[in-house]
Amino acid sequence: MVSKNVSAVTTADLGALESDKSVSNDGRAVAEIQRDDPDYIDPAEERAFVWQLDLWSLTIGFLGYTFKYLDQTNISNAYVSGMKEELNLYGNQLNYFTTYFNIGYIKWLPACEVLWGIFTCCLSTATNAHHVFGLRFLVGFFEGCAWPGYFTLISQWYLPHEMSLRMSLFNIAQPVGAMLSGAIQGALSTNLDGTLGRSGWRWAFVINGVCTISVALCAFVILPGFPERQKPLSKFYLKPRHIQIAKARARRVGRKPQIGITPKSFLRCFTFWQLWSVAISWAIGANTTPENYFNLWLKSLKTSSGQAKYSVAMLNYLPIIGQAIQLIAELLFSGFSDYFGVRLPFLLLHSAINIVSLIILIIRPSNQHTYMAGWYMNYISAVSTMLLCSWVSANLEGEPEVRTVLFASGTVLSYLRSAFVPIAAYPTSEAPHWRIGAKLYLAFALVATCMFVGIHFAFRWESKRKTSVKTDTIEEQVDTKREK
């Protein structure tokens, strides 16, 4: 056993050992550092530092991703608000608009935000489907960096037990963006339709793009970079002492700095089982695709006289309820997951709700309220992503490059699934009763559930192995010092 009397065992050694213990329970057992240690941080000072991060970097990230998702989902709102009729879209063009969007990944966040904002504005000038195809490709290409970029920043600045809630706060930008998209489109369809000769859906693209560009210009100043490579413009709120605190916190949990990715280190990332298992379960576990076609079902509903049951404004407002459900679920799942320090039980609860919602969509009950409940429950399926990302971040503290490539890989696989699978599963021409649809996504949900359980046991095995190796190493050092 390790003797507490032996001076040869340094604080760093014990800190490293405790770092691995923190990984085993998701960061809740952090090494207790003595006050005379240079890495000691006063708790009040640390809370103030985290508050600074939340106030500035998390806020600008939230706004950036809100408008990213708004720019991503506004095509569905525009489609049911007059775009379909104005551009003569009577085939599967809506599916292909999504496909062209979901092809892309690039690097520099604020510059990319400016560019995708410009191309979003350009969508207001589209006169046919081919214009929309090209512009959606460019918007998706430059938006591709948002998710992995922001999640990489979170994984470098926050401790494991802080990540899930922060990722969730960032992730709720998805439903907030979608809610704004529906609210904006509904309001513009009522109040600005025909102004200056433009349809309401065209004005929505202009306003969305201008908002995105404004947030992007702020991001140039506010995004902090990494603790070891701070962006100079962020020094107005992150002082030198803040950077010292950030680096000490990273050492506390054994986190290595971001050093950039070379071709060799990039290929090395794909040798980690965590990358493959989490990226695949991420892509198939968040079965949010069905919800994207909710308003097509709503548009198909008729009154007894054969008139459309819902107005254009209501077609945009009703999905907001589902997005609000997603927002609340994100906060509850992440908050309780961080509080209890576990991920698997909440992933399994997510899977149960997701599976029930898909079964309802497969059965297609004659009662419209029950069927609508199935659509609304499907919005909860998005919560698995942030649970997986915070889970794997805590288990890869010493591999920052792997975390970054994993976030990018999960994003790419999710985009590929969103780009091509709906063409076969949810062709617009089959709306509102799709032959494949929810059946395929139910299969995805069942496979993802099995993968969640497998990942849990693999993480436990990996944690025990690391702790055993570290303990043996320290004991060998102690024995060597004793012999001398």
TrEMBL record:
UniProt xrefs under Pfam families: MFS_1 (PF07690)
Key word Nucleotide-binding present: no
Topology of the protein relative to the lipid bilayer: Multi-pass membrane protein
TM segment ranges: 169-188, 200-226, 265-284, 310-332, 344-363, 375-393, 405-426, 438-459
Gene3D superfamilies associated with the record: MFS general substrate transporter like domains
Gene Ontology CC annotations of this record: membrane
Predominant location: membrane
Keywords: Membrane, Transmembrane, Transmembrane helix, Transport
SUPFAM superfamilies assigned to the protein according to its UniProt record, in alphabetical order: MFS general substrate transporter (SSF103473)
Lineage: superkingdom: Eukaryota
Molecular functions per Gene Ontology: transmembrane transporter activity
InterPro entries: MFS, MFS_trans_sf
Compartments where located: Membrane
Name assigned to this protein: Pantothenate transporter FEN2
Species: Lachnellula suecica
Gene: FEN2_1
